[in-house]
């Protein structure tokens, strides 16, 4: 038996679980059978409790044990949520590969959590992700798999890794119905329906049952439709060709793929069903499904080496699941296509992780949702007090036990409205529909309310603030003697390395005869007038003049080139090796050969700082820094170019190619600001929403764009933050320098008129060595330049740690991590349903940001209004029932029905329809339901509700024509009577009054007078109530008493009018801040948000006065 001591141990175990990430449990037979008996004796209530609280079910039926022996596990994820998973077992054959030496038993123990497989590894003594078995693969190790796996090895791996399938289950209708009915909301509704039927409220119970059935059917339809849509998007099964260890090629289903399989990618391309790394050939890939970026990307073979393979750092060599390979090129004669090795399958792929994040979104830490639960608890306390009062009152009236129990439970269903959680989502649902009409698609509706609280918005630069395409502004040649004049037309350059680098240093490819690739490279090549050609056939047929090197692409000059008014004949140049651009390396390079050249020539382009670090110092002009500063400060994007001659037979590795280069010069690209950007940034600034630029571009270019789009005002200064990391020669340093000036303290700007600007290298050093300065810099920095994708994500998280609600807007290409990490991420993409971010806008400018914030504020205000209205509705009815019970009567069946369906439901529906305001305002709507204005407002309204109904009752009983009800008859048997009629009349007006009082419009919603549907319903219901008060006879089903005194009826209407005027005046005074004088008494202490606590000090912070050097002892 479960003793008190055992229950106490269970309670302590509940507390201890909060300190553990994983705890194992084993089934105890006698406990399991005892619980089954409990299911029967409790008529299924115990089973429902176990269904709602599975963790409690495990603790009751199991005993604690080591994870290695567990049948069930309780897990705690990174957000603190606890889940119950079952440990599964499967007999497998031991693999012969060294990969599986850690698996010494044929019985595989594993569990599935958020669709990811975790297996027990004896060597580690823990459950590990199955992907950890190959996470230490090196680039050279991947090349060993080119020979293919044997059927036995593949079968063994399939048992370990599972099927290569991203399967989003579409649950059967019966199961969906079962899960929906067991939702606490519907269980509470069912409890109420049974209670009302037992109390003879047949009509009311029937209508509520029908309405619940309609909502269930609609919910089932929407759930099934969304599941089917996601299932079709995620599931991909196709036939692929793999290479066996025998050398034979075999066509298999993609479901059977495992990590290590050698995949043959046909030249016509395919939709990739797994993650794979490219080892031979080239692939043109459309990754728009994952990133929202519509420009195809060229993938090149991975370079062998002892470094550990990681898909994020080797992005340009990795083919991701769900992406479409448009075409593939082979490199050897007889090959059917490119060669790749599978690295991840199923939910461990990039697409699988994104789908899993949709199925299991991280809980939103939003104050509104947290306070809603506390407020429901408060209503529960009110219901408990009401139940006690009802019990005492009826007990004194000698009511039967059946009446006592039914009435006490009935008051709970009245005080705690079950529709309250649904009312909280109504605003977001309406906003989602409006956003869809504006071309903004949302895959996470709860985040719409969060949009209303955004306090800081990060923007990518290229493709977001500025146009995606670029125009060549010109080139400038540089060397030991200095820089030449700017040449605006690169096609006029002499046939020297600078011209060849512009024509050849790219990763463009042909698709149906048209060049495809990076828009910047397309413009660069177009400016030279050279044309791209690709070898015919299998890519091995190469002219002898190119030394029979394998040619990836051929660049042909114009038939006749004109340089300095002379006709020059140029030879074609062949690209035989490509090292694609990497955001981490900040550069790309190619190896070329041509007829007449003595050796191969390597060309490199990239960020100027990176390129000169790889160039021979004597080839870099002394004016390098000044020239770079000049052009970047004009808003130009500057790329540096370099070259060197190499021996192609010796030097083929990237590390050897990209060193000791000769500096060539600069390529300047003009990136125009989108016409909408400045206006949106100005709007955000005016409403106190910080705008921050996060870009991979040069710092000076970013500063220029920030000034152009009004992130930095014309009268504001920019201070550069320079941080250096620890080296063998120097300690970490942190310096602040005014733009274009030194660090003279006399030049220090006044309070509040400066912005900080920092690049990625300094940001990394700041985070590592100067954590005390990090919050200060984050709060004053507006420009973050030369940031790699991982740093963008880190920046968003650091800003969130300060307490900001962070939004992020980007094109999805290099911003996916930041978009998903932000509280509100919006991707500018033509895709209707991209999984790159919670929001996707088909409008390719940032106007969607202001639209999203307006809709978020409108949704949040609507949710607040509906929540307050549903709470006040329950309090109005609660007071009516309490007052009528005191005088031995109650509301009849149709009266409840009239209030709940005709009045409240219709009003709640039209309240959520209001559109957002056309303009954003300086203050954000509150998200705290338990703040002083809300609580005072609800308290005063509740007092007015009670006073109004009591006044109506007292006025009625004071009339000389008043006839007391029959004291020997109780509740509905006493109907109709004067007490019931007076309370019914006034409470009916109160439902309408509260809808008007709490429906807030301006400034975040359009004024209530523009919500025509709400006004129409309001007018009809007001007329209906006046009719019921003045001439109740036709409504005989409401069982109202026909009081002939017209003066009395007018007095009742007058009481309702006074009730409205007082409540409306109170609401206006509270909105105007009349309670501000009490804020000192309501001492909330310091803000929980760090940035608000630091704000007073940051306002007076003068960074130019500070230059920090960490001593060796501190370091």
What are the key terms here?
nine-stranded antiparallel beta sheet, disordered N terminus, alpha+beta, 41% helix, 33 helices, eleven-stranded mixed beta sheet, 6 domains, 1115 residues, Calcium-transporting ATPase, cytoplasmic transduction domain A, single chain
Tell me what the structure shows:
With 1115 residues, the chain is α+β, with helices and mostly antiparallel strands. The protein has 33 helices and 42 strands. The protein has an eleven-stranded mixed sheet, sandwiched between helices. Strands 22-21-33-32-31-30-29-26-25 form a nine-stranded antiparallel sheet. The protein folds into six domains: 16-134, no CATH class; 173-234, no CATH class; 239-359, Calcium-transporting ATPase, cytoplasmic transduction domain A (Distorted Sandwich); 367-439 and 852-1072, Calcium-transporting ATPase, transmembrane domain; 456-465 and 674-842, HAD superfamily/HAD-like (Rossmann fold, 3-Layer(aba) Sandwich), CATH 3.40.50; 469-559 and 569-609 and 637-652 and 660-671, Calcium-transporting ATPase, cytoplasmic domain N. The chain starts with a helix and ends in a 6-residue tail after the last strand. α19 (624-633) packs parallel to α22 (699-708) and α29 packs antiparallel against α30.
